[in-house]
Amino acid sequence: SLIWGEKDYLPRQQARKTMAEGKDQSQQLPWLKIVTAIGVIWLSILISIAPWPFAISALAPTAVAHCMVFQLSLRHANSLPPIACFMVGLFLDLTTATIFGLGVLTCMLVHLIAATQRQFLKSRGLIHSWVGVVVTTLFIAPISWIIASLYNFSFQPWMPTLAEFTLTIAIYPLIAFAIEFVLAVFKFGVKSS
User: Fold this and answer.
1) Is 116:75 a contact under the CB 8 Å cutoff?
2) How far apart are CA 65 and CA 8, in angstroms?
3) Of 28, 43, 47, nearest to 188 (Cα)?
4) Which residue in 74, 138, 149, 155 is a FRET match for 182, CA 20 to 30 A apart?
């Protein structure tokens, strides 16, 4: 004995139940994505801190951190919320022995700029993202130079800032490909928000 409308009600109820189960499965462990992103960035910073036989290797940790924060903030925003960027910047400050707080500030600014560019750059390719990194680095480099000059009460040489700017732009494609390759291989966090 079917009551009028019961036939229509059951499929809708089953569809809602299926959607709720799918939502639970996709958001099962959101903290795992965040912890993994932070761990990968920290590991990359530690690898870049190693004593490499290049004169520019002292600038590599900051460049690597900025590239990874930009890429993850742009393409995989749910993997790198602002608190994770703060933790990456704090780790960068503690490991590179630069002005304390400068790494936090620059990582947060990179995240903010990537978040504002996300709507435009997310669906675009690497070249557009690369232009986004150039614009971001053009904004971040003078800020970090000004803060370093104010901290030391004298004008700092601009060549290290220019070298870090150039290094960040040069290594971004490699880091972007590496992040996307790792995410594709492990099928972890491939769906970006």
Assistant:
1) no
2) 54
3) 28
4) 138
Report the largest interatomic distance among the alpha carbons of the chain, rounded to a whole angstrom.
88
Please report, for the chain, how many H helices and E strands are present, in that order: 7, 0
CB 70 within 8 A of CB 112: no
Structure tokens of 30?
């959101």
Candidate from 15-19, 59-63, 130-134 with smallest mean pLDDT: 15-19
**Predicted structure pTM score:** 0.79
pLDDT for 113-144, tens place per residue?
A: 999 998 888 888 889 999 999 999 999 999 99
73-98: burial string, b at 16+ Cβ within 10 Å, e else: bbbbbebbeeebbbbbbebbbebbeb
Element (H, E) at 35: helix 30-49
Cβ contact 118:71 at 8 Å = no
Work out the mean pLDDT of the chain and round it to a whole number: 83
| 102: CB partners within 8 A, 6+ apart | 93, 144, 147, 148
The C-alpha atoms of residue 20 and residue 117 are separated, in whole angstroms, by: 31
Over the stretch 180-192, which tens digit does the pLDDT of each residue have? 888 788 765 545 4
Cα-to-chain-centroid distance, residue 51? 25
What's the CA gap between 57 and 189, in Å, rounded? 30
